[in-house]
ABC transporter substrate-binding protein (Actinoallomurus vinaceus), 374 residues
Amino acid sequence: MSFPRALARVSSLSATSPGRATKALAALTAAVVVTAGGCGTEPVRSGASAPDDAAPRRTSYPLTIDNCGQKVRFTRPPSRVLILNGTSVGEVESFIMLGLTRAILANVQHYGVSDDPSMVAAIKALPTRGLTMNKNFDVPAEQVLAARPDLVVSTWSGGFDARNGFATREQLAAAGINSLVNPVNCANGRPDASPAEKEAWRHASIESSFQFMTLLGRIFDVQAKAAQTVGALRARVRAVQEKVAGKPPRKVLIAYPGMSMMNANGLPAIMTGGIYDDVIKAAGGVNSFAGRTEDTTRTLDKEQLATAQVDVLVVGAFTPNERPAEEAERLFAAYPQWQASRTRTYTVVSDGVYLGPMNAWAVEKLAKVIHPDG
């Protein structure tokens, strides 16, 4: 479950349990960790062959792209970008890695932990311009419009939903402001999404992270930088895949104890499907709950967790004040039948298993414990 999807899931609690929804939203916002061409493109999963990066070209303006069913026209590279929260950091991290921080007018994405610790300081250094978030934990419409950006970026379509107090894409366009949704998340928060967009969202992958960076390269005329950065990250993932090729996959469980509010039974949030499975696969493993639906995080019960096959435990760090090693020991004590509990085999990740450019870090971390002899 991605953070935007988690946010939507938590928001749905408000009708039946306002107190629980408020607690969950507050926890989600305490420390945010995560998550080319138009929307609806089927992502290339890391287990499949990915095309080599084409020779980068200069962007010719005006540039028009199809983004989540809307035509977005750029006459020049944006220079006043507002990045919405969306409980993600994948977008702002992509800007940083492509050297586009000077174009950021204000950033609301933030976190306190990362698989690349340098990202914490890099994000903290970005301007916020005093923007505040409403009860739905993103910047309300009036603040976005008053900031006069030339581009507003959201990790999901729900970031432009008027029902949550956000500026719509139509409102922004009327004010001369472009908007952009991370293409793989077009269907997230958009009821009229196409079948292709829904399929892309369900099957988000490491390549989805690269596609967004490539798209930014086109929009900002830094295609060479994007190709170089994506190429280097993809090479790191491929290097791991080559090392673990042919080795028997081990069962891997990704658990975020700090997100237990997302589970109806108070268990750690167990991540499965989409990019989680892809990161694990690239590292030579298989998700303990592979093939399960997105509702697993919400509905999993203690019996299901107890009977899961777990060779490697991956503890997700959700806030900077958590103690992952202690959380791992608690899980080992609660589920001594796991193979991971017997061998005390675990590692810690934060944003690397979510949509964004940190996937290579997570793949490398996981591979070291999944196949330590590799």
Observations:
- The chain has 15 helices and eleven strands.
